[in-house]
Amino acid sequence: MTIEDLLSREAIRDLMARYTIAGDRLRVEDFLACFTHDAVIESERVPPDRLFRHEGRTAIRNWQERWRSAGEGAHGATFVRHHLSTSAVTLLGPDDAEARTYWTAWTDIGPDHAGHYLDRLRKVDGAWLIAHRRIRLDWEAPGSLFRSAVANSADSSATARNT
């Protein structure tokens, strides 16, 4: 492992922390800054009514704006904190990487839901960004406050595949 490899891994871990903090605090611009222009973010392993896929920064921005405008009404939580744990980063080249990161989300009820991120990352202008994030749900509490959140932040115009 080279110093450049270590710097890339640390930059990717910093990116994941910035994504998490921006998402939990609904800081849309900071959240968008974590993605490539053509990024995809999507859910997997959830019931059909909670599946989502947003392609491109415009679609991701619109989704986050809907989430922010719904406020606590999106999920009923007064706070949300995603905690990242194990993260395995595989460097595929100087500008490409993959990562698997485990997370647990805490809300007013305590541990609310958990899963892992499967990421494809790309270095753009010297900065590591998320090119494709698959969010997999592994577990949720019986009283999870997030069960209605995706539906409450859905795009009512039917498509979220904007670029």
UniProtKB/TrEMBL annotation:
Pfam family, one: SnoaL_4
Gene3D superfamilies reported in the protein's UniProt record: 3.10.450.50
The SnoaL-like domain, residue ranges: 5-134
InterPro entries on file: NTF2-like_dom_sf, SnoaL-like
This protein's name: SnoaL-like domain-containing protein
